[in-house]
Amino acid sequence: MAEKEQAEGAWAKNNGDVVWVLVDRSDPHGPILSACETHRIKGFLKPQGHDQVQNAWYYALAYVITPPQYQKRGYATHLLRLLHYVLCSDPPAFPTDWGNFPTVLKDLVAEGQDPQLNEEGAPPTPMSAEVIIEKKSLRTTDFPKACGMLLSNDVSEAFYARCGLGPDGVGFIAPEEWQWELEWELGNGVDFSHWETLYESDIPPIAALLSRLSEQRVQATSSTNKAVFCPDPASEGILTFASVRGAYGPQPAWRKFPQPLGIRLPAHKGTSGEVHQDDTIILFALYNQQVGDGLLITYIHNLSPDVLPSALSALDRLISEQGAGWNMGRVWDLDSSNDLAAAWKQSGRRVNVNRRRGTGSHLLSWCFYQGKTEVLDRQLWTWL
């Protein structure tokens, strides 16, 4: 799966997907003490007190792993704390008791050049930094400075809360209001006229539209008392990550390819194939066992309560056509006070609205480097 992801995943292009490892300074080519994987993603940021949106980068933390013999020694925590310093756009002073700053990029790659590797695939000279990158052909431009790091947490909140910028920095936070999930019962829909099924070739203009609207939303939100941030749906491969990633590995017998990625209700007659701001767009992942069972709604755009019954019928039909055995669907970032959630409850289907909690619940967690930050989009498409 890892090789397939590196070869085919749009998010992995141009070294967007990288593994970092922690090693002993005195033995940089010795045993790996801890490791993690990151994805590089674009976003829109309006810093606190500013009135203009900036293009920004963030890194999504895919996993952290420590060999059994090195666990419970603080290596994973130290790896992430060091990594924040490497990636942060404006880090605080490096703690003197940590030794030298991890000059990972300077040591590994000269500006604008590929690293020269020996026959074993390792740099020819020892590196002084504790953090190194497990990948070839890297450039400093592959690691733009970031505004923060995202995590879909399946383990301990307490552990990641300790992994902040510096020894006393605030680590990953996962407020309860970020964790809403609505589950609903799939049925036998009858009213699904005019809905179009979306495939991979339909996604680029949709991503461009959603990107523009996300930037406008950040611009329109006050940053008087906090920074404002939204991931960029046009960041390569991210909008459909859950769908594409779910197609890696063993697949159920009912899976058909090419896989549908969403449905669209054009706002204007005769505009099939043309994307408009007032279209209704629903993106989904038909199958992703890393997230869980069911039809996974990853992005909702311009879905009004009065259109919801037709949308649910269209999704029912699609599940039936695909032969999927799902009897329920899930959507993130809809709480009980939301008008759309209320319409879902009035649809005549069994509906549950709850907060995700505990191990394996994919808690949306952020570690922002610029302090208090409002996140404007917490839908399932941001899962990594």
TrEMBL record:
It comes from the Eukaryota. SUPFAM superfamilies: Acyl-CoA N-acyltransferases (Nat) (SSF55729). InterPro entries: Acyl_CoA_acyltransferase, LAT. This is N-acetyltransferase domain-containing protein.
